[in-house]
Amino acid sequence: MDIIMNYIDSMFAGIPVTDETSRLREDITANMTDKYNELVKEGKSGNEAIGTVISEFGSIDEVLSEMGITRGAVPVVITEAPEKKYLSHIRTVSLLAAAGAGILILGIALIFVLQYHTYEKILSLFTIIAGIVFIFLSLFIRVGFRQKYAEIPEKAMTVLKAKYEAKRSLTLKMVFPFICIFAVLFALFSGIRYFNVYSFIFMVSVSLNLAVTAFVYTEKHTLAGMIGVTVPNLKAADILRELTLPYFMCVLMSVTTGYNQFEIVVISVVVYIIMHLCAGQFDTIKENTK
Amino acid sequence: MISSDIIRGYTDTMILFIVSCGDSYGYEISKQIKEISEENYVMKETTLYSALTRLEKNGFITSYSGMHDGRKRTYYRITDDGKAYYKEKCEEWELTKEVIDKFI
Q1: CB contacts, 8 Å: B44 with chain A
Q2: Order of strands, edge to edge, in the sheet holding B24-25?
Q3: Are both A29 and A43 inside the same structural domain?
Q4: 20 to 30 Å CA-CA from A78: which of A112, A132, A221, A272?
């Protein structure tokens, strides 16, 4: 039996491992094992049975050409699969963390704002719990993420690393710091000028938002570090962009729409979640169009 | 033993005939082909799987995972398109036979 297994191993050597080829391998192994057992049962000697089974194998290239697989395509297949997995994991983790934080902040803000009726208290409590659940979910996935990526071949990681390093465009790096400084000054000014309880909540929640955004963003890099890849290099301009974009959006809205501060808190949470959704998509789109 | 070159154009037809009698998996199909052909034709493992891949791609059969003797197997089932294709191939063979017979 070992001879048959070794034969199959050698036939499948260098063939990319996909769902299709692993199924083929599994099926062919089962067939050859059955055939061997049946021949032995019929009274053939072990060696005779092995000879017959192997002579009836055929040529692996025949199946591969039907499946559209060539041996030369090996490196491409190895590098693309983990990359997609990697991107989808980053997106899921940061999305969950961001949504969790956003919802949690909304819950805290609700405690301050809504406390006149019992149902309002329950609502804020429920919102806080939901936020915590989201954050735990993201932590949970993060742990799985780490385990999963221990399996990715080193070669694939090198390619991944190279792709990510050439990722951020110069325009983004130049424009965003300027917008950010402008936004921070603007926000500080409006906070002091119209100070009241709502603007206090607004400031606290937005600050928390920023803290969590920073956390999620740095965490992406920490994660990447753990699995041996430097995903986008952590540059000052990137941090500023990530940290101040939601802030800028909120301030801009409060100025242009005339909403009160509580409404802005709600909007900021929404913007925050949408932004992270977009950030995740942005990474993927950019990778796919390369 | 018939050489596989001659039979190549009809391996798909043989497989379709087997699965039209009931869902089957790889080894069972090749065993039945061997039996029906009275051991005059043995289909190679890779010939069988390239045919199965082709048939599935063309929508003539569908596959699903099943268990047999405690081992995971891929079972194949014929589709309506597959039945129609089988009929077509049978008619084609009748014609081929008629033509070739004129030279024999």
Answers
A1: 56-59
A2: B24-25, B71-78, B61-68
A3: yes
A4: A221
Q: Give the tens place of pLDDT for each residue, A29-76.
A: 888 888 888 889 988 888 888 888 888 888 888 888 888 877 654 443
Mark yes or no for CB contact A57/B46 under 8 Å: yes
CA-based nearest residue to A52, from A37, A67, A64: A37
CA of A290 vs chain B CAs: smallest distance (Å): 30
Query: Mapping DSSP to helix (H, G, I), strand (E, B) and coil, where does residue A150 land?
Result: coil
- B42 and chain A in contact, CB less than 8 A: yes
Last residue of some domain: A13, A35, A69? A69
Shared domain for A49 and A82, answered yes or no, is no
A157 and A267 share one domain: yes
Compute φ and ψ for A183, nearest 5 degrees: -65, -45
Look at residues A255, A242, A181 and name the one whose alpha carbon lies nearest to residue A210: A242
Q: For the domain that residue B21 is a member of, what is the CATH number? A: 1.10.10.10
What is the chain A residue with the closest CA to B43? A56
Interface residue B34 vs chain A (CB under 8 A): no
Instruction: Judge residue B94's burial from the number of C-beta atoms within 10 Å of its C-beta, 0-12 exposed, 13-18 middle, 19 or more buried.
Output: exposed
* Domain extent at residue B93: 4-97
Calculate the average pLDDT of chain A.
61
Whether B58 has its CB under 8 Å from any CB of chain A: the answer is no
Q: What is the model's pTM?
A: 0.45
- Chain A nearest-CA distance from B47, in A, is 7
The answer as to whether B79 is a domain residue is yes
Distance CA A175, CA A52 (A): 71
Count of domains forming chain B: 1
ipTM reported for the complex, 2 dp: 0.86
Kindly report the nearest CA distance between residue A71 and chain B, in angstroms: 16
What tokens does B93 get? 């063979």
- Does B19 map to a domain? yes
Interface touch A63/B27, C-beta < 8 Å: no
Q: Which residues of A touch B30 (CB under 8 A)?
A: 31
Q: Which of A15, A37, A69 is the last residue of a domain?
A: A69
- Per-position DSSP letters for A86-110, written without gaps between them: HHHHHHHHHHHHHHHHHHHHHHHHH
Q: Is residue B102 part of a domain?
A: no
| CA gap A100, A105 in Å, rounded | 9
